[in-house]
Each structure stands twice: as C-alpha cells, then as structure tokens.
Write a structure and sequence with these properties.
A hairpin with a 2-residue loop joins β2 and β3. The chain contains 5 helices and 3 strands; from the N terminus they run ααβαββαα. Helix content is 47%, strand content 15%. With 96 residues, the chain is of the alpha+beta class. Strands 1-2-3 form a 3-stranded antiparallel β-sheet, with helices on one face. It starts with a helix and ends with a helix. The chain is globular, with a radius of gyration of 16 Å. The longest helix has 13 residues, at 65-77. The mean pLDDT is 88.
C-alpha cells in the first residue's frame, strides 16, 4: 500500500496503477539500471526503512517494494533524476 501523498503525486503525472509490477515496469521504461536492496533488521531499524532503491547516485528509502519503485518513478517524472546519456563504445567506432 502506498502512502496517499505518493499516490496523489503519481496520479498528477498520469500514473494510476500502483501495484508493484506495474510500477516496476513503468520505472524500467525510464531507468536502464537500478538496484533494489532489502535491508537486514538492524539497518532497517537504524534508517527506519525496509527497502532502498539505488539509481546512479540517488537513494530512495521505502517501507515496501512498491513504494520504492514509486519513489524512484516519481523522481524521474519530476525531473529530479536524469539517466546517463548512452555512450557509444570506443570499440564500435574502431571498426569503421
């Protein structure tokens, strides 16, 4: 279950599906690489969260997997996260 303020923020950007799978699939359309970590009990108590979503140099703390995906997706939609531009491999240009 997502917090109401997070759900409302997603609705303003046109994201109405709030289940874990739909949020993950939507996030993956914007972000090529991310890491979702389930925290052990002692760090969860220390940081007051159960999951951490890492996207490049940004960290999003959450109580559930769906909330972690929603926080990451919201950062992308609000422009607080910019994925790295694709860089062409130097090996690909050597063959030309």
């Amino acid at each position: 279950m997502l917090p109401d303020d997070l759900r409302q923020a997603l609705l303003t950007h046109g994201v109405s599906a709030c289940d874990e799978v739909a949020l993950r699939q939507t996030l993956e359309t914007y972000v090529p690489t991310y890491t979702l970590i389930r925290l052990a009990p002692w760090p969860a108590r220390r940081w007051k969260c159960r999951y951490r979503l890492l996207m490049r140099d940004q960290i999003y703390d959450a109580q559930s997997v769906a909330e972690a995906y929603a926080r990451g997706l919201l950062a992308v939609l609000e422009g607080r996260y910019q994925p790295e531009p694709e860089i062409q491999s130097p090996l690909a240009t050597q063959g030309e």
